[in-house]
Amino acid sequence: MGVRLMVVDDHRLLAEALASALKLRGHRVLAAAAPAAGAADLVISRAPEVCLLGTAAPAEPGAFDPVAKIKRERPQVAVVVLGPVPSPRGIAAAFAAGASGYVRHDERIEGVERAIMKARAGEAAVAPQLLQGAFGELLNPAAQPDDEGQRLLRMLTPREVEVLVRVAEGEDTRVIAAGMGIAPSTARTHVQRVLMKLGVGSRLEAAALAARTGLLDRAGRP
């Protein structure tokens, strides 16, 4: 017997193509809608057996808020997340929000259908390799992504880092030039490049950004 389901994804074309493929396999697809502010409300109002909910960024804060809302209002609806290869935190966040499964965007239609059937039966619908990868990373965690201060630091040359540190310490162009043994015009050019790379409009903003992100602590001081 076909499953009464909904397909909701950021990319309408993908949602409609997936819905069409599932219809051809005998399922009753209620709607294929791009997620927006009312996406969860749409699922709640139609109350399908299973909802395929797409997400492009499972690691983003709030990515699974719609899942939580659906499960809060319609606990009988099984939600299967459709997304990119997730991190362990992505899988954990999906299931913590109430998802019944997680399927990769590049999964074959047969795999998507298996996940749908498992979810409707009340089983966890997640590929074994995703679970293996998640457990492997949890047991042997890779280095965490660099934070904002480290990211900004990588954008600057060593000379520009020194200029930023001096700017943050309140040195004007003349003092920067003397301290670094360069011409004032060269110091001024370095300052402008630092401002441009950091995306700020003034030395004060550059100093505030460097302090807020911890960039100064990483850079050290001359």
TrEMBL record:
List the CDD domains hit by this protein, alphabetically: LuxR_C_like
Q: Mind telling me which SUPFAM superfamilies this protein's record contains?
A: C-terminal effector domain of the bipartite response regulators (SSF46894), CheY-like (SSF52172)
* InterPro entries xref list: CheY-like_superfamily, Sig_transdc_resp-reg_C-effctor, Sig_transdc_resp-reg_receiver, Tscrpt_reg_LuxR_C
- What range(s) does the HTH luxR-type domain occupy? 149-214
Domain Response regulatory per the UniProt entry, residue ranges? 4-120
Name the domain of life this protein comes from: Bacteria
- Keywords on record: DNA-binding, Transcription, Transcription regulation
Entry-linked Pfam families: GerE (PF00196), Response_reg (PF00072)
Q: Could you tell me what this protein is called?
A: Response regulator transcription factor
